Amino acid sequence: MSCRKAVTSASSNFSLQSLRHLLILSSLCYLISGFSERDRAHHLMTTYPLIDGHNDLALQLRIHHNNRLSQIDLHDVSKLATDITRLQAGHVQAQMFAVYVMCGAQEKDAVRLTLEQIDVIRRMCTKYQEFELVTSAQELKNSKKIACLISIEGGHSIDSSLPALRMFYQLGVRSMALTHTCNTPWAESSSKLYSVYQRQNNSLTHFGKAVVEEMNRLGMIVDLSHTSWETSLAVLNHSKAPVIFSHSSSYSICNHGRNVPDWLLLELKKKRGLIMVNLHSKFISCRDEANISHVADHFDHIKKVIGAEWLGIGGDFEGAVSFPKGLEDVSKYPALIQELLHRNWTEGELADVLRRNFLRVFEEVEQVRNELNSIPPSEVQIPMEEVQNPCRLVLRPPDPRGLPSDQGPSSGPPGLLILAIVLLPSSVFLIE
Ligand SMILES: *[C@@H]1O[C@H](CO)[C@@H](O)[C@H](O)[C@H]1NC(C)=O
Ligand SMILES: *[C@@H]1O[C@H](CO)[C@@H](O)[C@H](O)[C@H]1NC(C)=O
Ligand SMILES: *[C@@H]1O[C@H](CO)[C@@H](O)[C@H](O)[C@H]1NC(C)=O
Ligand SMILES: *[C@@H]1O[C@H](CO)[C@@H](O)[C@H](O)[C@H]1NC(C)=O
Ligand SMILES: [Zn+2]
């Protein structure tokens, strides 16, 4: 018998005793229903544990420990929002760990720094037996641990090189955001923080399209978080596989440039993609404070516009500073699920949001890779004039006169060569 029926039948037979029953019964019901939503959330997340789209733990390991894992015990890190104990408490079964290299490294040592961040994630996910590095949808599904997926955050990490992209794939990278807060020579960022590679009406260049094609061929997920809407649209038009926003929220609810407007959500759905909602307060309420209701508003809105099949969660813990009240760290995800249950989301919808949508996208990306397996690795190269910078050398035998033969006209004294580099457009050097 349901609570409501019990209360109704008790109240229909009015007497002092039944009034007492009624009172006891309704407070009991209150308690049960109060607890049961919380219990339902935990139970649901035990059956369908979360695959989270974005976490910057590796960035914090660099900032605080210069990647020396020996200095820290990741079971319990109170100064951060992420550790193994709280990942387990939050029912996080898989985490995309971001390989993030600041835009200031573009045209400098971005590739080295990227390798070092991949290394620290690989070491972390090997050292702790609670973690397991996975590189396919099947391994992700089979894993009984916290599955680690590696994703690069910012196309500047490949230094405009498809061979570098392929080698990152070999190291286990299964997703890449095309930009961070800087444009690359081939794709446009949502941010105007850096003035590098300004362009008009060319938000995804010929080489940018080749990057998307190569990612499709490899089976690497294209991530549009941080790219401009124009670039996102061009990628959605060009990609053969579904793409994701790994950590972006709804622009209709909070009009921040990092969020996704409804028209773009509709394009994303047409391409069978996925938006994983970012929990950072600035993208949730457009202010420094937010709460779970504000977050749930993003979920309700996106569901209303495109449905729950194209939705996920990309917390952005360790990559941002302020998180909503009640969602301060990775152990708090059940509170969000509880709020969505309270808002009448079905368990099926929530199972989709928690993991089934991501698994579907990952499998479809792998399916496209399988279909493209007769295509050889791309030999497209970015035109030299699009990547003019003093760090980019062309591999040639050394000039017998000891003059670097790869940075300009081979005739003329070294002094002139240095002058030519200094006179290059200053925007090339404006990195930070
Ligand atoms: C870019 O495209 C818009 C509309 O598509 C047009 O109005 C504008 O003139 C174009 N700008 C350039 C530099 O081509
Ligand atoms: C989409 O691609 C087609 C063909 O490749 C092209 O003609 C069209 O302009 C593209 N649209 C956008 C919005 O990029
Ligand atoms: C969240 O904050 C809003 C005000 O911005 C308030 O109306 C709402 O009740 C709060 N929700 C929770 C769960 O605290
Ligand atoms: C959830 O559904 C119940 C019963 O159908 C209804 O009374 C309640 O208003 C709904 N809640 C929300 C937030 O839509
Ligand atoms: Zn980010």
Note the topology.
Elements: H1 3-12, H2 16-47, E1 50-55, H3 57-65, H4 84-89, E2 92-100, H5 110-127, E3 131-133, H6 137-142, E4 146-153, H7 162-170, E5 173-177, H8 206-218, E6 221-223, H9 229-238, E7 244-245, H10 262-270, E8 274-277, H11 281-284, H12 292-306, E9 311-313, H13 333-342, H14 347-371, H15 414-422
Parallel strand pairs: 1-2, 2-4, 3-4, 4-5, 5-6, 7-8, 8-9
Helix pairs in contact: 1-2, 2-13, 7-8, 12-13
Concise structural overview:
With 432 residues, the protein is of the alpha/beta class. The protein has helices at residues 3-12, 16-47, 57-65, 84-89, 110-127, 137-142, 162-170, 206-218, 229-238, 262-270, 281-284, 292-306, 333-342, 347-371, 414-422; strands at residues 50-55, 92-100, 131-133, 146-153, 173-177, 221-223, 244-245, 274-277, 311-313.
Q: What can you tell me about this protein's structure?
A:
- One of its GO terms (biological process) is proteolysis.
- This is Dipeptidase.
- It catalyses: an L-aminoacyl-L-amino acid + H2O = 2 an L-alpha-amino acid.
- By secondary structure, the protein is of the alpha/beta class.
- The protein has 2 domains: 3-34; 48-371, Metal-dependent hydrolases (TIM Barrel).
- Helices cover 43% and strands 10% of the residues.
- It contains 15 helices and 9 strands.
- The protein has helices spanning 3-12, 16-47, 57-65, 84-89, 110-127, 137-142, 162-170, 206-218, 229-238, 262-270, 281-284, 292-306, 333-342, 347-371, 414-422, and strands at residues 50-55, 92-100, 131-133, 146-153, 173-177, 221-223, 244-245, 274-277, 311-313.
- The strands form 2 sheets. Strands 1, 2, 3, 4, 5 and 6 form a 6-stranded parallel β-sheet that branches. The protein has a 3-stranded parallel β-sheet with strand order 7-8-9.
- Strand 3, helix 6 and strand 4 (146-153) form a beta-alpha-beta unit.
- Helix 1 runs antiparallel to helix 2 (16-47) and helix 7 (162-170) packs parallel to helix 8.
- The chain is globular.
- The termini are far apart.
- One 2-acetamido-2-deoxy-beta-D-glucopyranose (NAG) binds next to loops.
- Zinc ion binds next to loops.
